[in-house]
Write a structure and sequence with these properties.
- The protein is mainly α.
- It is built from 9 helices and no strands.
- Helix 2 packs antiparallel against helix 3 and helix 3 packs parallel to helix 5.
Length: 180
């Protein structure tokens, strides 16, 4: 049997009161392993949130959390919905939704089936042109190249992602790249 994963953590109450309407609170709950609580708070926030960017962010965290607890199809459907809402809006929200969908779809789909989503990641990344989106794009390409057995090409894209991430000095992103 496998060891404990983030989604296996026991639900524990937060030490601070939940600020409803706050994407950051939902994200904090998700990142701290309180996945089921993050889903519940996201649901409550989505009922009242009117800001489109906040709604997209909440959908991304909710879809990711639902995916984490094993409800893969439902999580992917929510991420697809977030991507559709974000398509013509804020590029950063669009990238977050599209990248989240791609990174989860790529765990189950064949490389050929991922090309439409990867194409969207490329478009949004080019539109943003920032180091974070460039790193995300090249991580996605590296994953596909590795699945296809093109290890040298995959390694090249990992190095491009590492270079872009180094500009940001985000240790979590650099650590994630180092795991590839």
């Amino acid at each position: 049997m496998r060891g404990k994963r983030r989604s296996d953590k026991v639900h524990r109450p937060t030490s601070t009161p939940v600020e409803f309407g706050s994407y950051r609170e939902v994200q904090r709950l998700y990142e701290s392993g309180n996945v089921t609580e993050a889903i519940a708070v996201a649901d409550k926030n989505l009922r009242t949130e009117t800001d489109e960017i906040e709604r997209i962010r909440l959908l991304v965290v909710k879809g990711s959390a639902i995916f984490e607890i094993g409800r893969v199809t439902e999580g992917i459907d929510i991420l697809r919905a977030a991507m559709e809402v974000a398509k013509d809006g804020d590029p950063e929200a669009d990238f977050a939704a599209t990248w989240s969908l791609f990174s989860r779809e790529s765990q189950f789909d064949r490389p050929a089936e991922l090309l439409p989503t990867l194409g969207r990641v490329r478009q949004v990344s080019a539109r943003l042109g920032n180091p974070f989106s460039i790193a995300g794009l090249h991580l996605g390409i590296a994953r596909l190249e590795a699945y296809r057995g093109h290890c040298l090409d995959a390694r090249r894209h990992v190095e491009i992602a590492r270079t872009a991430a180094a500009r940001l000095e985000l240790t979590s992103l650099i650590a994630g790249i180092d795991l590839v």
